[in-house]
């Protein structure tokens, strides 16, 4: 089957990371999966939630928030604040982001701090949750490295990198990293979250008015594993290149990206 963007079945979209697009965060990155673009920011606060203090829970905490900006889709999406509540999809995704990062962060090594992960979707073309997880890991890793350099941490809390990718069955064919048009046509839609060591953090999969076989599941897992290995290699490169303190250079790179 010919894909809309000419990719092979097991090929990721063009992936890019632009660090420091939000200079006031401890670390940030603009994560792009093709035309899906998400700003992932990691902010360290020198305190823990009140419930941890009351229960005398040691270590730190990590929590995530996710939002699609009104102009991120073809038709304007109302802000959650204008509706007075977070919609169910956003709640599900931010919980997934939090679970994925807590699986690879040692909260005791973080100390009595809170790591806030904020994922804001600038442009949505499928895979916003997988882009958010992949970018959030990079932002967190850079933030931890900066705290280590500043002497605020003595041990790196990040136990392993984590990444995520979508896989689906479209007209009987397994496809990696679905764009919106492919996702809308998919008979089966899945999201796979894995560590760099190949351990699963979460597997989401469902038939869209369809069913799928054990063979389909095996094919999707194999594609997911391949895609995540490629994402981890890209994560490693950008983390290594972003050891300097946060500055405003990412803002120019962000502007240049949208000029293309």
Describe the structure.
The structure is a single chain. The chain has 260 residues and is an alpha+beta fold. Strand 6 and strand 7 form a beta hairpin. The longest helix is centred in the C-terminal third of the chain and has 28 residues. The chain is 37% helix and 27% strand.
Shape: globular
The CATH H-level homologous superfamily: GHMP Kinase, N-terminal domain
Please give the largest β-sheet. Answer: 5 strands, mixed
Tally of DSSP helical segments: 8
Strand order of the largest sheet: 1-2-3-5-4
CATH fold field value: Ribosomal Protein S5, domain 2
SSE string:
EEEHEHHHEHEEHEEHH
Query: Which CATH-level-2 architecture?
Result: 2-Layer Sandwich
**Count of distinct structural domains:** 1
Which stretches are low in confidence, meaning pLDDT under 50 for 5 or more residues running? none
| Average of per-residue pLDDT values | 91
The helix fraction, in percent, is: 25-40%
The proportion of strand residues reads 25-35%
Distance between the termini: 28 Å
CATH class: Alpha Beta
SSE-based structural type? alpha+beta
Number of strands: 9
**Spatial extent as radius of gyration:** 18 Å
């Amino acid at each position: 089957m010919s894909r809309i963007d000419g990719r092979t079945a097991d090929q990721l979209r063009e992936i890019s990371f632009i660090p420091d697009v939000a200079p006031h965060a401890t670390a940030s990155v603009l994560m792009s999966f093709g035309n899906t673009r998400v700003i992932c920011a990691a902010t360290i606060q020198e305190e823990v939630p009140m419930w941890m203090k009351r229960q005398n829970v040691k270590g730190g905490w990590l929590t995530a928030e996710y939002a699609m900006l009104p102009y991120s889709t073809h038709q304007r999406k109302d802000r959650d604040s204008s509706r007075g509540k977070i919609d169910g999809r956003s709640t599900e995704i931010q919980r997934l982001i939090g679970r994925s990062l807590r699986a690879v962060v040692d909260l005791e090594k973080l100390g009595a701090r809170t790591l806030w992960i904020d994922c804001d979707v600038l442009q949505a073309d499928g895979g916003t949750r997988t882009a958010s997880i992949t970018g959030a890991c990079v932002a967190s890793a850079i933030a931890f490295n900066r705290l280590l350099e500043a002497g605020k941490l003595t041990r790196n809390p990040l136990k392993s990198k984590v990444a995520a990718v979508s896989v689906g069955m479209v007209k009987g064919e397994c496809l990696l990293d679905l764009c919106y048009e492919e996702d809308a046509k998919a008979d089966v839609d899945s999201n796979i979250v894995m560590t760099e060591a190949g351990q699963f953090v979460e597997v989401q999969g469902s038939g869209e008015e369809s069913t799928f076989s054990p063979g389909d599941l095996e094919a999707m897992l194999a594609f997911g594993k391949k895609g995540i290995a490629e994402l981890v290699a890209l994560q490693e490169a950008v983390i290594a290149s972003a050891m300097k303190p946060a500055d405003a250079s990412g803002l120019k790179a962000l502007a240049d990206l949208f000029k293309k």
